[in-house]
Amino acid sequence: MHVGPLYRTLRDRFRKAGLATPELDARILVGYAAGIPPSNVVICEDLVATGEVRRRALAYSEARLEGWPVGRILGMREFYGLEFRLNDATLEPRPDTEILVDVILERSPTNRGFRFVDVGTGTGAIAIALLNERPAWIGVATDISEQALICAKHNAQRHMVHDRLLVARSDFCSAVSQGLDCLVSNPPYIRTNVVNELDPEVRKFDPVAALDGGADGLDAYRAILAHSARVLRKNGRVAFEIGFDQEAAVAHLLREASFLDVETIYDLAGKPRVITGLIAK
């Protein structure tokens, strides 16, 4: 068998099962099984798929049909053009969060010495993407989970930014020093009573601690902002990912914590995705 027919076999199985993105899922899984970029699967369809490649691709297919997300099957997820290893303690980074990276890059100087903290780093995706784009920056990445930090350290080494990223175990910002230029976070923001209603691919595979934001979904924002005046220098920036219905509530929390120029950035669907502001102290 060749790569092309193998791809079409998986694609047709996924279509029949009613998966949302059968073509994309099949390309990614066959590409990883064959050791070629998923974007090249179609143009490499005459490449011979060895017995091992076929076995691997069909095993991936079975897992996908059983409800496993593609990223969890591979133990890997792409974010901001980089591949990140996952583990059971990390949230799977998603394309919407790339807006958070864009916001920081577009609103911050490129100069040497710019320092930021990524709170609740998980895989390290946000911090590592920022450092990859800005070779003069220095970052701190915190998480309460030791297993998540192990994953973040591996990813930092993989992308050769480990010498500019300090990884530290901390409950939000409690272990973070003062005088930073920026605080960024994609915190848990799902209301507790909504967690069990999430898509099974999220509910069953992402850690609850990275999803559950308390009764009103705002617990993590409050905890982080309680440290913001200490952590940030004057006119330092905070940037959060937010839920689709949290714009007003989080904006209110920022203003209560003495942030000015509070701004909301919307995703391609027109939903509020990121909120940012500058601390006035």
UniProtKB/TrEMBL annotation:
GO molecular function: nucleic acid binding; peptide chain release factor N(5)-glutamine methyltransferase activity
Binding sites annotated in the UniProt record for S-adenosyl-L-methionine: G120, T121, G122, T123, G124, D143, F172, N186
Catalytic activity: L-glutaminyl-[peptide chain release factor] + S-adenosyl-L-methionine = N(5)-methyl-L-glutaminyl-[peptide chain release factor] + S-adenosyl-L-homocysteine + H(+)
EC category: transferase
Domain Release factor glutamine methyltransferase N-terminal as annotated: residue spans: 8-75
Sites where the protein binds substrate: N186, P187, P188, Y189
CDD domains assigned: AdoMet_MTases (cd02440)
Chain ranges of the Methyltransferase small domain: 104-191
Biological process per Gene Ontology, one example term: methylation
Domain of life, source organism: Bacteria
Alphabetical UniProt keywords: Methyltransferase, S-adenosyl-L-methionine, Transferase
Annotated EC: 2.1.1.297
Pfam families from the UniProt entry: MTS, PrmC_N
Family annotation (PANTHER family): HEMK METHYLTRANSFERASE (PTHR18895), MTRF1L RELEASE FACTOR GLUTAMINE METHYLTRANSFERASE (PTHR18895:SF74)
Protein task: Methylates the class 1 translation termination release factors RF1/PrfA and RF2/PrfB on the glutamine residue of the universally conserved GGQ motif.
Similarity-based family: Belongs to the protein N5-glutamine methyltransferase family. PrmC subfamily.
The protein's name: Release factor glutamine methyltransferase
Organism: Roseibium hamelinense
Primary gene name: prmC
